[in-house]
Each structure stands twice: as structure tokens, then as C-alpha cells.
Amino acid sequence: MSSTSLKHQITNQYPIPWSMSRAEQATLIRVLQTIKPKVAIEIGTYNGGSLQVISEFSDKVYAIDLTPSYRDKRCDDLSNIEYLIGDSKRIIPELVSKINNSDEVVEFILIDGDHSTKGVLEDITKVLNLIPKQPITIILHDSFNPACRKGMTSYNYNSNPYVHYIELDYVTGAFNHDGLYREMWGGFACIQMQPIKRTEPIAISAYQAKLFLVTYYRSIHFFKNFFWFLKPIYKVFKK
Ligand SMILES: C[S@@+](CC[C@H](N)C(=O)[O-])C[C@H]1O[C@@H](n2cnc3c(N)ncnc32)[C@H](O)[C@@H]1O
């Protein structure tokens, strides 16, 4: 195989543009190939890049986004998707309640919607109200972004007996991501729920905690957070 075909291997197979790194794309494909979910949920569809893969390996997908306007026309060829348009904070509680009271078996969830700390925490809190009938694998995109990561660490996992695993750096993220000056984005966190209740306390694992910290102190996020008190003065001068 030539290096050119290796470069385009995933793109050739999944043509809808995708807001994820090569490592993330390869991991998502592999995870889904392994699980073959009966039901999957995606929060944050955008143009359908990740959805085209979730759709291929799942029997049914609920795809949630604020707007359908970004969606690529090629998504119309995917037949197993129910689109739920609106804010995930409103949609997820309704969906979770419906699924908990039915025989639908959710086995995979991608959280990639609201990227604020509060938004990520709310999506996690609402999704983790699912009562697992089979193991549920939850992938959370952008765990390397400080605001998203804070949302991911803010949930009290010990309060939920169905959570058996939390890894913030299942796939490590990137610095200067897509040329964004000193910004930290990307990365997969992974949460696993099991139908059996956990009896021991659980801790959040962060395989690349040191890499995250070293990078954070060189990032634009650190400077913005550190000099937050200068923001009102900056706004005055900007006028
Ligand atoms: C980064 S994009 C998703 C990319 C996509 N998963 C992929 O990899 O191709 C984030 C999407 O989340 C949606 N979004 C943001 N906040 C949301 C919310 N509160 N509820 C539902 N969708 C939201 C945005 O409209 C946007 O399309």
C-alpha cells in the first residue's frame, strides 16, 4: 500500500468531513466495530462525520443537534437514524425516560455537543440517568480542552453505581489543534456503565495527566484563565 492511500484510507471509506483527528477516527471505528450497538446516541452531529460511522455499525441511532442546517446531504442515505433537533439538555431527559421505560438497549453514546464546562457536565449528568441493560460505552470528545475536561471531572461518579470506568485520556488530544494558536482540543474520554451495580468507590483515571498540565501552562487557556480579572479593562480599551 502506498503512503498516499494510507493518508486517505479513512476518508475514502467515510467521505463526509469529520471534526476528529486520525487517532480519534481510527479509535471510534474500532470501538464501534467491536460493540456493534443495538442503539446508539450521538450528541452533536454537525455535518455527520462521526454519525456516518455510528450509523454503519449500529442498528439504530438517535442523533441530536441544535440545528439540521450543517448536515451533509449524504446523511440522507443513512436509513437507521432518528434526528432529534434542539438543545440536548431538553432532549436527553425525554429520551432517557423513554428508553428506560422500553426494551431499547443503548450500547454506545458519543458526547460532542455543547463544549462549555456547564454544558459538558449537564450532558454527562443527564446521560448517566440511563439504567444500563447491557454495558454502555460513552465517548466524550475534546477531553484535552481545559473547559470540557473540567466538565468531565465535575460529575460525582461515586454517586452513580452503574459507572465502572472513567478515563480522561483514552485518546490523547492535540496542541495548536488545526492551527488554533496555543489551543488544546481533541482527545477522547471514555466512561463505561455496566448493568451490575458497583460496590467499591471509583476514581477518575487520567493516563496523560502530566502531559495535560505541561501543555496547559503553555496554552492560551491558562493565560485567559490567569488574567481573567483584566477582561473588563480589555473590553473598555477595545471600544
Ligand atoms: C464539534 S460539532 C460535532 C462534530 C461531530 N460529532 C463530528 O465529529 O463530525 C458540535 C455540534 O454540537 C452542536 N451543539 C452545540 N450545543 C448543543 C446543544 N446544547 N444541544 C445539541 N447540540 C449542540 C452544534 O450545533 C454542533 O453541530
Describe this structure in words.
37% of the residues lie in helices and 20% in strands. The N and C termini lie far apart (57 Å). It has a single domain, classed as Rossmann fold. The chain is built from ten helices and nine strands. The strands form two sheets. A seven-stranded mixed beta sheet has the order 3-2-1-4-5-9-6, with helices on both faces. A two-stranded antiparallel ribbon has the order 7-8. Helix 3 packs parallel to helix 4, helix 5 packs parallel to helix 6 and helix 6 packs parallel to helix 7. Helix 4 links the parallel strand 1 and strand 2. With 239 residues, it is α/β, with parallel strands linked by helices. The model has no long low-confidence stretch (mean pLDDT 94). The structure holds S-adenosylmethionine (SAM). S-adenosylmethionine binds next to helix 4 and strand 2.
Please name the defining characteristics of this protein.
239 residues; alpha/beta; Rossmann fold; seven-stranded mixed β-sheet
Q: Look at the structure and give the mean pLDDT.
A: 94
Main β-sheet description: 7 strands, mixed
Neighbour order of strands in the largest sheet: 3-2-1-4-5-9-6
**How far is the N terminus from the C terminus?**
57 Å
